[in-house]
Amino acid sequence: SEAVAGIIARHVIPCTLEYLDRATHALTDDYSPTGLPRDAEAILLIEVDGHPAQVEDDAAAVEEELRRAGGDIRVARDAAEKDRIWTARRNALPALARARPTTLLEDATVPRSKVPDMVEAIAKVAATHQVRIATFGHAGDGNLHPTFLYDRRDQAESARVAAAVDDIFRAALDLGGTLSGEHGIGTAKAAWLENETGRGHLLYSRRLRKGVDPKGLLNPDKLVGVRG
Q1: CA distances from 42 to 2, 20, 154, 209 (A)
Q2: Is residue 155 part of a domain?
Q3: What is the average per-residue pLDDT within 60-83?
Q4: 3-30, pLDDT tens digit by residue?
Q5: What digits encode the pLDDT tens for the residues 83-132?
Q6: What is the mean pLDDT of the chain?
Q7: What is the domain range of residue 23?
Q8: What are phi and psi for residue 137, nearest 5 degrees?
Q9: Of 64, 108, 210, 224, which has the highest C-beta tally within 10 A?
């Protein structure tokens, strides 16, 4: 995660910069072996594109930041090896989904420079609440997917997961991030929306909603609904 911040600080914007933590990669490798090192704390899958000269410069900068962070570097030699490496990311969610009866994926997103802090926060949350979290995601835009692996039939475990989710939302907002980078707020995060936008924004949204849909016919009782 330190390498991610370093790469972005160099003004290098890879076309792809994906992150898998050790837990995610271990489960993914069990699901479909990738040949990537299982003892790594995390795996970064990185691609750069553009004019050949720019690609060469960007790749050199990326490698420098990876070495600075103490990382090992593997460059795909051909399309077949590239595809095999990418199976680690493509198979992440199905691999996690079979680990426990219940999978809960979040997508709290933080500024790219704060990715290391968010990774650390997720680890602390998991330890504090004694829950199992595997994290992967789009590190290039700060969008991480801390994924809870548990059994919702276990009420005690489910309660710990709920508390951990709240702490992850809180950490993301404290780091200047957002509750959702791509999946949206929905009903699951509705209670947290005011924490991100402020009370005034929420009340204004409700007034606007009431103005265009006074009878509450469109998706009633959701978030800014007139009866909310």
Answers
A1: 11, 6, 30, 44
A2: no
A3: 90
A4: 888 898 888 888 999 999 999 999 999 9
A5: 888 888 899 999 999 999 999 999 989 998 899 999 999 999 999 999 99
A6: 90
A7: 2-94
A8: 155, -170
A9: 108
For the record, the structure tokens of 220 come out as: 């009633």
Q: Is the pLDDT of residue 228 over 50?
A: no
**How many other C-beta atoms can be found within 10 angstroms of the C-beta atom of residue 210?**
15
Which pLDDT band, with edges at 50, 70 and 90, does 213 fall under? Answer: confident
**45 bridge partner residues:** 18
Q: Is residue 57 part of a domain?
A: yes
Q: Which helix (H) or strand (E) holds 162?
A: helix 155-174
**Cα separation, 22 vs 28, whole angstroms:** 10
Residue at 197: amino acid letter: T
pLDDT at position 149, please?
98
Cα–Cα distances in Å, from 49 out to 3, 9, 16? Answer: 19, 18, 9
**How many angstroms separate the CA atoms of 45 and 85, rounded?**
8
The 8-class DSSP code of residue 38 comes to: T
Overall number of domains in the chain: 1
Residue 199 lies in a domain: no
CATH number at residue 81: 3.30.70
Residue 193 lies in a domain: no
